[in-house]
Automatic annotation (TrEMBL):
<dbReference type="InterPro" id="IPR036412">
    <property type="entry name" value="HAD-like_sf"/>
</dbReference>
<dbReference type="GO" id="GO:0016787">
    <property type="term" value="F:hydrolase activity"/>
</dbReference>
<keyword id="KW-0460">Magnesium</keyword>
<dbReference type="InterPro" id="IPR006439">
    <property type="entry name" value="HAD-SF_hydro_IA"/>
</dbReference>
<dbReference type="GO" id="GO:0044281">
    <property type="term" value="P:small molecule metabolic process"/>
</dbReference>
<dbReference type="InterPro" id="IPR023214">
    <property type="entry name" value="HAD_sf"/>
</dbReference>
<dbReference type="Pfam" id="PF00702">
    <property type="entry name" value="Hydrolase"/>
</dbReference>
<keyword id="KW-0378">Hydrolase</keyword>
<protein>
    <recommendedName>
        <fullName>Hydrolase of the HAD superfamily</fullName>
    </recommendedName>
</protein>
<dbReference type="InterPro" id="IPR051400">
    <property type="entry name" value="HAD-like_hydrolase"/>
</dbReference>
Length: 243
């Protein structure tokens, strides 16, 4: 029986995609205009987005996890806002911008509609539920707190707090240890073949489950079970238990 279910966080449980994020950035920029007459919020938003995307790509799947503690999200975002605002000749607004950005992100985080019912059913089935996520601890915990996700979870493992990341097997092994579960009795659910599926398979978990919300890509050759909604997960796990 698969007694333990681990989940990725972003784009699996928490919905904060590119459209919502860009709207958040623009709202922050619009809010700075009153403090800086002549500031063009569209230019500032483009400057921030360009820097953020470049940094995200450099740290994306396949990039080595940095040795030692990673900076908090606030520290990283502050640096990006300072760069963007310096380009727009208002570096003095960097602290104001990052605080507004953090608050606006918290407001805009949301759970996908299929999350609450699915997690409630997993708990009713007696399964342990955990999150394994890459990112700074402050950013990832803010998502969990803002969405009320914590009430469904037994454990949370964040790469920025443990200094190892998906797809490395070490972060999965740490989660298994905290859950008190054997690898063959656990599965991992996530939207990324590169980090979630590859990591779960490398760690020898009982199942790797790929959440493909577009429903457009076949799972053949991925080594994963594919679902297009978390509503399908409780039934899939029961089938695997019986199989």
């Amino acid at each position: 029986m698969l007694t333990t279910v681990f989940f990725d966080l972003d784009a699996t449980l928490v919905d904060f995609g590119p459209v919502a994020w860009r709207a958040t950035v623009r709202a922050v920029c619009d809010g700075l205009v009153s403090a800086a007459p002549g500031l063009d919020p569209a230019v500032l938003a483009d400057a921030y987005v360009t820097r953020y995307v470049a940094r995200a790509r450099a740290a994306g799947p396949g990039a080595p996890h940095p040795r030692g503690p990673i900076p908090s999200a606030r520290t990283a975002w502050l640096g990006l806002w300072r760069q963007a605002l310096t380009e727009c000749r208002h570096p003095e607004l960097a602290e104001t911008a990052v605080d507004a950005y953090i608050e606006r992100r918290r407001i805009d985080y949301a759970l996908y509609t299929d999350v609450p019912g699915s997690l409630e059913q997993l708990r009713a089935d007696g399964r342990t539920i955990g999150v394994i996520t890459n990112g700074p601890g402050d950013a990832q915990r803010a998502k969990i707190d803002a969405t009320g996700l914590a009430r469904y979870l037994d454990l949370v493992v964040i790469s920025g707090e443990v200094e190892t990341a998906k797809p490395g097997r070490e972060i999965f092994e740490l989660a298994l240890e905290r859950a008190g579960a054997a690898a063959v009795a656990a599965c991992h659910v996530g939207d990324s073949l590169a980090t979630d599926v590859a990591g779960a398979r490398a760690a020898g978990l009982g199942a790797a489950i790929w959440l493909d919300r577009t429903g457009a890509t076949p799972a053949a050759g991925t080594g994963a079970y594919r679902i297009d909604s978390l509503r399908a997960l409780p039934g899939l796990l029961r089938d695997l238990d019986d199989g």
